[in-house]
Amino acid sequence: MHDQVLAKLEFPAILDHLARLCRFSVAGEKARELGPSGDEQDVAYLLDVTSEAVDLLTEFPDVTIGGARDVRVLAQRAAKGARLQPAELLQVLDLVSASRNLRRAFLRLPMVESRFPRLLEFVDHLAELPDLEADINRSIGPRGDVLDTASAELSRIRRDVRVAHSRLMERLNALVSGGKYASVLQDSIITTRDGRYVVPVRSDARAQLQGVVHDTSASGQTLFVEPFEIVELNNRWRERQLDEQHEIDRILDALSDKTGSRADEICSAVEAVAAIDLAMAKARLSFEMRAHRPALWHGNSTNPGGHPEHRLSLRRARHPLLDPAEVVPIDVDLGEDFRVLLITGPNTGGKTVALKTIGLLTLMAQTGLFIPADDTSVVSVFPAVFIDIGDEQSIAQSLSTFSGHIRTVIAMLRHVTPDDLVLLDELGAGTDPQEGSALARAIVSRLLELGPLVVATTHYPEVKAYAFATPGVENASVEFDVTTLAPTYRLMIGVPGRSNALAIAGRLGMPSEILDAASGMLDPDELRVDNLLQDIRRRRDDADASRERARAEEEQARALRGAAERELEQAERARREARSEALTEAERELEDARETLKRLRRDRDSLQITREHLEERRREVDHAAERVRTFRREKINTAAPMPRKKPIASGDRVRVVSLDQEGEVVAVDDGMADVMLGALKTRQPLGALERIGRVRDEEARQPIVMPASSGPVNLELDLRGYRAAEIEALLDEYLEHAYRAGMPFVRIIHGKGTGALRKVVKDVLSAHPVVASHEIAPANQGGDGATVALLRGS
What we know:
Elements lengths: L2 H6 L2 H10 L4 H8 L7 H20 L12 H8 L6 H22 L4 H4 L1 H7 L6 H10 L12 H26 L13 E3 L2 E7 L8 E6 L5 E6 H34 L1 H27 L5 E2 L15 E6 L12 E5 L5 E5 L6 H16 L11 E2 L5 E4 L12 H15 L5 E4 L8 H18 L2 E5 L3 H9 L3 E9 L4 E8 L7 H7 L4 H9 L3 H79 L1 H4 L3 H27 L14 E5 L4 E9 L2 E6 L2 E6 L3 E6 H7 L14 E3 L5 H17 L4 E5 L6 H12 L3 E6 L9 E6 L3
Parallel strand pairs: 5-9, 8-12, 8-13, 10-11, 11-12, 20-21
Antiparallel strand pairs: 1-2, 2-4, 3-4, 6-7, 13-14, 15-16, 15-19, 16-17, 17-18, 21-23, 22-23
């Protein structure tokens, strides 16, 4: 695409906004360099990447690029043998650490290979350099100082430096504080000059303290003297300092060499982090614009008026640079029944905005960006987009506005192909209306022959008539409200614009006799056309109003149906709870009766109870037992609140009504089903089960990995990579399994991070009934990154 086309459609403003949403400077640079692709496979790939980024940030908003730095120049300098300074090595460490963390965060995501295959291609280029990372961490402190742990030799030298310095200061303090030179010293202080310790001596007493003069005061009254008796101590201290600097240089050279040897991997990691950050910036842009992924048109058409291979179908499309609260969405169809769309209407009515919206959304889609339109929108991939919009007057070439437009159109006609998109604003304007109208019709006819999709704006009435009579051309208009004297900005396809001059003049107070005289001068055919257009608009408005009423009634019916279903479900739940309570009460009564019967039999002799009395109590027990069996049969036969849409089959997730537990169906035969409830397998009648859905569907919506129900419970649960909102249910289920398995304790791995996961884990463990106590894990078991929970005896 030519830069001029991108500029006229304000595409650079979109890229600037995208760049501001990037968290990494390299990603921001790449964002401003983006451009639309004319290859359909490339566009599909770019949209796939953005879709994965949208899903990623929707489900896992905590995934970030961390503190990545652009260290490509540093790595290349190191590869050429340059010595990197500590602050520069810290930048390399930031990049390597961010690369490692981002890679591991991705690999911990559930079903990452199937859900994020495009992003995973970038992740594969994220370097993990543990040796380099460990060496820099061990050698360079967070403030950029070289640590004692950088090497054993450096540690030894620094001990010598401290010893030499201590001895030097002891001698100096003794010299200054002793009375021998009290009358010689200007002040009882110790200072330095040129890296050596000196004392201030009065200039008139210079001869009384032998030493080397390093400096004088501004007044000349004070000499800064290094006494001869500390020269050797100063020399030893300075020698140890030089040894220290040589060892630091050696360490920096070694770290720089190691960085240079991994320069290719480091540069590749920078590019991969930038690619991932750019994809996430595209996702953030789609969130801000409430944008959706458009479908790419792959079909063809046999309609003679339409385009054989390309379509544009935008639903509720909005210009992305206008205020979302004020912009009026438009619907556009092009390519199915016609190839040329001619938009007419008043000035400032929104024709140019509609034209730019079509062009800009097309370029956004071809760059891999979601577009601010409904998700039912369809676009084609165009190898080129041609546009003539705005004032093309050139003072240097002494060209008029008309001439500038014509030069642009001439160049366009030379290069346009049937696969391109052409956008023309105010076609034929800037000259005599009659000739301009004829020229506009001729240009449209030529474009029809060349075969591209065309959207053009005009105000010539003859062009509207031409569109009515020409196959492949369709009228459209932007609506104008005569009552308010303002455009509504609605785009109406199939309805040409009409003149509103007399109506506007009447609303503004023009005398009626002048308006009548003007109406009498109009062509009768023109009046009939205007009346016909007005009738078309009225009918269209009535149809739109009826459609809106039908949509509102449908929404209301859907809401009422949902409310009725919820009330029915609540009523059924209340009925089941009441029946369950009644069953519990009946079972309790049965147990009491049985206990009474046993006691009567045991005490029959001592209490002289008659056989008839005993038989009466036994009949009461049988009656209570029959009540319990009746409750159970009724509960099974009437368990389901609503008829099932699908029969229960193996692999379904169901609720066992009598147990109020959810499980997975593993086998179905003869009206019975085998259901796995965690590690427990039970056989239940089909009538006692409520189908929830397929197991894989549930797993796809809530990707939680738990130990296999048929195997042992793992001693530890790794929650890293999950969001705080997800882990409460996961941890609760895991603790239940561990408690039932009789485990004495478990270890919960939550990582250190910001502490959000650790707080949720602590809250759950503190309130959970099976947890006796919990504490941070020992240092050798994870420290602050894990919590050990002691379980109550099962």
